[in-house]
Amino acid sequence: MALRDIFKFRDLPESETSKPFLEHLEDLRWTIVKMAIALVLSMIICLAFRSQLVHIMQQPLHDIDPKIGALRALGITDSITISFRLAFYAGIVLSFPLLLYFIAEFVLPALTALEKRYVLPAILVSFALFLTGVLACYFWLLPRTILFFFNDTVSLGWAANWTVQEYYSFVTRFTLGFGLAFELPIVVLALVRFGLVTYEFMARTRPYAIVLIVLLATIITPTPDPLTMIAMAMPMILLYESCIWIAWFMRRRARKTALEDRNG
Fold it and tell me: Are residues 50 and 86 in contact, defined by beta-carbon separation less than 8 angstroms?
């Protein structure tokens, strides 16, 4: 049923013949293949620059204390497994516009000519939001979070000898989660555009949305501490609030256009 709901957006105009359900599944298969190819190629590029990526990822540690910049590798294969994991996450960032394009190409083939003109700008805006979230986390939130845990560890008389596995798991999930959180406006506005949600619904369910955002932040954050969860949840709540006002503006504009058409 979930696939059929998605395929409803793929219905062709009435003047054309709609595809059978099995052909939709074939389109879905090729979409997944194209996304996998784009991600694998991006991973190969990232693997070629893994030394530079490692330096970038550990820079927040060096800025706090050069002594903790040298992480401990406890596993024999850590250099390979973490390199592939790092290339995977970096590959997602690098191939993000293509991944979005392939998804849009599958879900929305029946757009009008006017609507199709907005697909590429929407993808670029979506990628810009994602990249803004990643960079904001890396340059602003991540150093402060690491510094907090470093000082808290030292205050208990412990040495901050963090392992490679723990550090890279924390950094990649934190930065990517923050980047995906910045996609909330695009998701909400798409739902508003297709009439799946309205301004009234979003305003009425604001308390429930805040609870869901907090739960999502709890899942996304790599550590269970409240500080990291709040740091992740607050921007998402502000973004959701901005989406409510944008939805209000879209409704007002649509009503104004409809009134002008009726009078004209």
Answer: yes
How many of the other CB atoms lie within 10 Å of CB of 70?
A: 13
Contact 232, 221 (CB under 8 A): yes
CB 85 within 8 A of CB 100: no
pLDDT at 86: 92
For 16-39, letters b (16+ CB in 10 Å) and e give eeebeeeebeebbeebeebbeebb
pLDDT at 209: 85
Residue among 158, 155, 96 nearest 128 (CA) = 96
- Average pLDDT along the chain, 264 residues, taken 10 residues at a time: 48 50 76 94 95 89 72 87 92 91 77 68 86 88 84 85 87 86 80 76 86 80 69 81 82 77 69
CB-based contact 191:197 (threshold 8 Å): yes
